[in-house]
Amino acid sequence: MNFTNLSERIKQSASVEFGTVFNNSVELFKKVWLQGFITLVLTFVSVLPFYLLIYLPMIAMGVSDPNMFDQQEMPPAFAGLMSLIAPISSVGAMTFGICLNAAFLRICRKYDLNESGKDDYFYYFNKEYLIKALILSLIMIGLSLLGLLACGLGIIYLMVPMSLFPAFFAFDKELSALEIVKAGFALGNKNWLMIFLLVLVAGLVSQLGVILCLVGVLFTAMFSKIPIYFIYKDAIGISMDV
Which of 4, 2, 20 is nearest to 12 (CA)? Predict the structure, then answer.
């Protein structure tokens, strides 16, 4: 579906209903909790090297001269190198996170519609999607920085449209990264309050696993992503070609 047709569907879509989306999310979570756990583990494993890369200069510093840790300040050269690596690593981690998040939403569609086939967690790990995810990550980081400049209030507003980006990324392969952003804002602005409440409540519910000796949160954390699937499905409809 091209961006023009997608925009028209968003304009004509009904308002998001909190109860319907939340109840559907609970029912679907019963089917995909294991897939959510696997996705979360894969996300940790895939982004960990990017965060380790940030501390690589510090590790190298300790290996070359252990006495450097006794100093109050890190040498400017190492501090500058870490400052350079940090944003690159953050973009890399976010790129992989978007692809895995989109794969989970695609798996949600499979179980929601009783489709056949395997659970492909790496479906979006190809050149076409990775480049798009990279550009989308850069845009999201830029938007987040702008949100922080607005005394943090901008982040609260941006969390709604930005939470929708993975759904458009997953199910609308014809869209460019910029068109995904525009579509996210269009749908998010139309139903901002209801989507905000769903994201907030789903996020709180996803943390209930902490009750089970903290480990349970690994099995419940991905519940927070499921309402996005139904918000997209109810507004746009789900295509079978992705």
Answer: 4
- CA 10 – CA 227 distance, rounded (Å): 17
Q: pTM for this one?
A: 0.90
Residue whose pair of structure tokens reads 């400052």 in the numeric block: 83
Alpha-carbon torsion 209, 224, 170, 21, what sign?
A: positive
Q: How does pLDDT run across 98-141, given as a tens digit for each residue?
A: 999 999 999 999 999 999 889 999 999 999 999 999 999 999 99
Q: C-alpha angle 132/136/137, rounded to 5°?
A: 115
Look up tokens 């996803």; give the residue: 206
Q: How far apart are CA 180 and CA 44, in angstroms?
A: 25
Distance between CA 40 and CA 38 in Å, rounded? 5
150-200 pLDDT, tens per residue? 777 888 999 999 999 999 999 999 999 999 999 999 999 999 999 999 999
* Residue 212 Cα distances to 11, 30, 40, 220, 239, angstroms: 43, 17, 17, 10, 37
In terms of DSSP H, where are the helices of 113-191? 127-149, 153-171, 177-190
CA Rg, the chain, in Å? Answer: 20
What does the alpha-carbon distance between residue 188 and residue 100 come to, in Å, rounded to a whole number?
A: 22
